[in-house]
Design brief:
alpha+beta; Beta-lactamase; 2 domains; two-stranded antiparallel sheet; 30% helix; 18% strand; globular
Length: 381
């Protein structure tokens, strides 16, 4: 185990973020790093609104985008812990419309050609690991574009839409990231097995026990007022980006409760979720997930030949040549620039929050720099 040097950590992070803000690549960002259950570094930088005067605070909400996925994965695993589903269950057990899925390929003219029926049943495991072919790749992009607002209005309608569509490949023959669809199906299955809305389930089973008071699909008026305003950086200029009204992610209505990307949260709230994962499902007196479930979430679940290193809803670091994080770390990012990871060996959770249409997702420069700056402050005991 290595220990973070607080002075070096502060120097690394502040130098980097102040440079990003100075050059307009970031408008505002918040950072929270814990080690051994103690907060080692916590700071907010920049502005609540690009070009504004109000400073960003720790009460700010951020659009999580795909950092919603680990929370959805935790909800599925919680239901598995309770024996209400198995990860090997076919999706059709809960959503009968998925009984006979078809496989498609792009037709070269913006459409999709069906090439036959899927031989393998689509399973919950496939959705958790992006190996099911639902709503992914070029085919997924074409499907998403043709969805109507009504198709996006609820998880039930989203599930009905994709049941009519083709898979991008035979399940478990490839790995391709599903931006929203696969985890929307998982969220719908949680609704069915719990007999309540996904939002209500998360609030009762995860958010309230963890004290995550500001994590929501449907922000209140007061929470919208605390939402970090979306930033953009184009042609060398920093500014505010317009977002669709009453949508947390893209143009998906907030009331849909999009399990792939629909949550908004604060850095304090998400840190509590990350700490629960670090502590093998425990938070105070609550054992929310079994240690076995957390271990499965945080372990590589697909063979290397399929590509990617996926647990359940998280990327797993198992390549010793990946220099920015130690082997055994796991976490994920969001399209608008959020990023987090858990480091079990060094007992660290690290969360970075920004909201920007520029430099987001798992390949974001800010995410890579954040990993470098935290890991660069580790010292041997």
């Amino acid at each position: 185990m290595k220990k973070l040097n607080p002075e070096k950590l502060e120097r690394n992070i502040e130098t980097r973020i102040r440079d990003d803000i100075g050059k307009g690549r970031v408008s505002g960002a918040a950072v929270l790093i814990c080690q051994g259950g103690e907060r080692i570094y916590r700071k907010a930088f920049g502005l609540q609104r690009p070009g504004g005067e109000e400073k960003l605070s720790f009460r700010a909400l951020f659009r999580l985008a795909s950092m919603t996925k680990p929370i959805t994965a935790a909800a599925v695993l919680l239901q598995a812990d309770r024996g209400l589903l198995s990860l090997d269950d076919p999706v059709e057990k809960f959503l009968p419309a998925y009984r006979e899925m078809k496989v498609g390929v792009p037709d070269g003219r913006g459409g999709i050609i069906t090439v036959g029926k899927a031989k393998e049943k689509l399973r919950i495991f496939h959705l958790l690991t992006h190996t099911g072919g639902v709503g992914c790749g070029e085919i997924g992009e074409r499907q998403f574009v043709k969805m109507t607002r009504e198709d996006k209005s609820s998880l039930e309608r989203v599930a009905a839409f994709y049941a009519r569509e083709a898979l991008a490949f035979e399940p478990f023959t490839a790995q391709c990231y599903s931006p929203t669809a696969g985890f929307d199906l998982l969220a719908r299955i949680v609704e069915i097995t719990s007999r309540q809305t996904f939002a209500r389930f998360l609030k009762a089973e995860l958010f309230e026990p963890l004290g995550m008071k500001d994590t929501t699909f449907t922000p209140t008026k007061a929470q919208w007022e605390r939402m970090a305003v979306m930033h953009d950086y184009a042609e060398g200029r920093s500014g505010e980006a317009a977002m669709p009204k009453n949508c947390v992610f893209s143009d998906i209505p907030a009331a849909c409760c999009d399990g792939g990307a629909g949550l908004a949260s604060t850095i304090e709230d998400y840190s509590a979720f990350a700490e629960m994962l670090l502590n093998e499902g425990r938070a105070g007196r609550w054992q929310l997930l079994s240690p076995q479930a957390v271990h499965a979430l945080a372990s590589r679940q697909i063979p290397a030949e399929l590509g990617g290193s996926w647990g359940f809803g998280v990327r797993v670091i198992d390549d010793p040549f990946y220099r920015r994080l130690p082997v055994g770390c796991f976490g994920w990012s969001g399209a608008y620039g959020t990023h987090f990871w858990v480091d079990p060996e060094n007992r660290i959770t690290a969360v970075y929050m920004k909201n920007s249409l520029y430099d987001g997702g798992s390949g974001a420069r800010t995410a890579a720099h954040f990993e470098e700056d935290v890991t660069g402050a580790l010292e041997s005991l």
